[in-house]
Amino acid sequence: MKIDKRGPEHIDSAIVGELTHDDLHSFNNLLQGIIGLSELLNCNPDLPPDARTDSKVILEMAQNASDLIKRIRQASRVEDAESETRVVEVTPDVEVPKPKSRSDVNILIVDDDPLVLKVVAGMLKAVGYSTITAQDGLEALEKYKENPDKVSLVLSDLAMPRMSGLQLAEELLADNPNMKIIIMSGYMQEEPEIDPDEFGLAAWLEKPMTAARLTAAIQPIVGV
Q1: Model's pTM, two decimal places?
Q2: In this structure, what CATH number is given to the domain that contains residue 61?
Q3: Distance in angstroms (rounded) separating the CA atoms of residues 187 and 100
Q4: The dihedral of CA 153, 159, 162, 167: what is its sign?
Q5: Residue ranges of the chain with pLDDT lower than 50?
Q6: Structural domain for 63, as ranges
Q7: 3-class secondary structure per residue, 161-187
């Protein structure tokens, strides 16, 4: 199938018909892994120049793939209802932020995709944050209850088995109304009518995302 680059109205309708929202979500999770690992490679000071150039090319290709997914979503008339200030987009030409002294900030990352969990944790560690990881909402609750004062912010996927990100947020906010929670998702249109403020959320983030965009979203919330 050929895809015309002129705009969403020129995308082959057969592609749109064959792809479900779950497919697009899975693609975005894969791209999150590619983008995150490419950036982590660039953080390695011993990386040979040729390999560094190649990793930047991979990052740019991932951006192109992300743009294609957005065009397919537009062609299927799936629109995000969240405001632009709540959504983080991929920009391949943004450098990874330099590490800072942020070790006192502990971020609980929750995602049922092991690759995304590993990559996002690596991205946050690369810029100086401490991380705790959990593969679903129930595990996240257990880790939070082990030491609630240690968790500065929760960064959770939206759609997960056993307990969704919103259900997790409800449980956490019931225990601590001041808990800062960010929901991330590969398909933000799943809950188009939800206002983050209504659920006490600090922000929504759209996958895939770069370390720079992720850090830019977290900094104003945790203060560093």
Answers
A1: 0.74
A2: 3.40.50.2300
A3: 31
A4: positive
A5: 1-11, 77-94, 189-191
A6: 1-224
A7: CCCCHHHHHHHHHHHCCCCCEEEEECC
